[in-house]
Amino acid sequence: MIVNTRPLSLSKNINLLAQDQMLDLKNIYLSRIEPNNNLLENQRWVSYTNQIASYKNIIFTSQSAVEFGSKILNLENLSQVFKGEVYSIGPATSLKLQKKGINPIVAESYNSEGLLEVIKDINDKSLLFCAKNSRGLLKDTLTKLDVIDCYDLVFNKSELSKLNKSDEIILIYNFKTLEFLASSLSEEVLNSKVFIVASKRILEQLRKSKDNIESLKIYIADEPSDLKMLNKASSFI
Q: For residues 171 and 25, what is the distance between their CA atoms, to the nearest angstrom?
């Protein structure tokens, strides 16, 4: 049994793909996406958007970054005030931007490493739209970076009861979800699962934050797309 852990709002595509491939997919919506409504942070973001022309790069890390970022920055009229480059991680995020009239640059590899390869100068001033408390290579590498962490993943422990001790294959799209599971489930349950993670960095972050993970069965998808995640998971069926 393959288990999708993405929020309900981001799960339409993977459910359609699973139906097309006649895969048995179980949805356990471990988290929901909420806007970051912190007043002080919102005031800081206004100062960034008021000087949007000073940036060389604007980066969106996810579909949710576009959705909630568009409530902070007018994307439909962005070309009138911004003459730099817009970047996105992955085709789904790119499509969301295209619907707002923006044609972003997308790396061949749908991850932070791939994006850094196409950004012209990491020392240019950049504005990043991402999740609250997100950890990542972009924050570590870009030297002149302002961050608008416009949304957050809020986890629901009651959903954990839908997991059982059977040989489930769990899809993990971000480190926070893997961290939540690793800290919430017993060692017995964790060891009974196969985890498919969207990037090598997710596994590296877990190694840094948690001891004794060698017994966990964690595998990395070729790309962080729904299709590649399902393809990797189906190889264990």
A: 10
Tell me how crowded residue 114 is: count the other CB atoms within 10 A of its CB: 15
Task: Assign a CATH topology to domain 35-153.
Answer: Rossmann fold (3.40.50)
Domain ranges of the chain: 2-30+156-234, 35-153
pLDDT tens, position by position, 50-101: 999 999 999 999 999 999 999 999 999 999 999 999 999 888 899 999 999 9
In whole angstroms, what is the distance from residue 190 CA to residue 26 CA?
Answer: 17
Residue 35 has pLDDT above 90, yes or no: yes
pTM exceeds 0.85 for this model? yes
Fold identical between 2-30+156-234 and 35-153? yes
Give long-range contacts, CB 8 A cutoff, 24+ apart: 108-117: 109/223, 110/223, 110/224, 110/225, 111/198, 111/199, 111/201, 111/223, 111/224, 112/61, 112/136, 112/137, 112/138, 112/199, 112/201, 113/137, 113/201, 114/89, 115/59, 115/87, 115/89, 116/141
> 76-85, 134-143, 227-236: lowest mean pLDDT where?
134-143
Q: Could you say which DSSP state residue 173 is in?
A: -
- For 2-30+156-234, give the CATH class: alpha beta
